[in-house]
Amino acid sequence: MPPPAVSVFNVNDQEVGEYHEFVARSEAIDVVDIRARVEGFLVERNFTEGGLVEKDQLLYEIDRAPFVAALKGAEAQLASSKANLVNAQKNLERGRDLVKKGFISQADFDMQTSTEAQAVAGVEAAEASLETAQINLSYTRITAPFKGEIGKSTYSVGNLVGPTSQPLATLTSMDPIYVTSR
């Protein structure tokens, strides 16, 4: 019996990578609708549609004039409330001495106590109104919450926008992104 035939090969050293093909979908981690939080007319749009924007970049500005006026009104109301409180506190202090000496009735002194308490509440209400006016004024500047690509603007400069309006635009994060496959 003859010997079996043998094949001879030269062996080369080389890397062979694994190759896999998957169907996948890429998704942004963050997608947000940019919305107005106060009502007013758009006076500025500060981005190119479809372009990249940076975190905290000013995107839109709403007319500030009514909100500046509201802030000044709230500041004036707070000053008035503080003046009323000072007057009520002085009247209450005088009333303490007068009620002890019997020059005014307990009912009159109780009225002064009530007036002082109302003045304290008036100052607190005015402070809250001032804070609300400051917040509303800050909402006239609409900024990007993160870096990403901004879509088409739904509104143009001059349009009236507000909390119930459609989103002004959509911002999508580009880095990093999710890739999901099944």
UniProtKB/TrEMBL annotation:
<protein>
    <submittedName>
        <fullName>Uncharacterized protein</fullName>
    </submittedName>
</protein>
<dbReference type="Pfam" id="PF25876">
    <property type="entry name" value="HH_MFP_RND"/>
</dbReference>
<dbReference type="InterPro" id="IPR058624">
    <property type="entry name" value="MdtA-like_HH"/>
</dbReference>
<dbReference type="GO" id="GO:0005886">
    <property type="term" value="C:plasma membrane"/>
</dbReference>
<dbReference type="InterPro" id="IPR006143">
    <property type="entry name" value="RND_pump_MFP"/>
</dbReference>
<dbReference type="InterPro" id="IPR058625">
    <property type="entry name" value="MdtA-like_BSH"/>
</dbReference>
<dbReference type="GO" id="GO:0022857">
    <property type="term" value="F:transmembrane transporter activity"/>
</dbReference>
<dbReference type="Pfam" id="PF25917">
    <property type="entry name" value="BSH_RND"/>
</dbReference>
<feature type="domain" description="Multidrug resistance protein MdtA-like alpha-helical hairpin">
    <location>
        <begin position="71"/>
        <end position="140"/>
    </location>
</feature>
<feature type="domain" description="Multidrug resistance protein MdtA-like barrel-sandwich hybrid">
    <location>
        <begin position="31"/>
        <end position="163"/>
    </location>
</feature>
<dbReference type="GO" id="GO:0046677">
    <property type="term" value="P:response to antibiotic"/>
</dbReference>
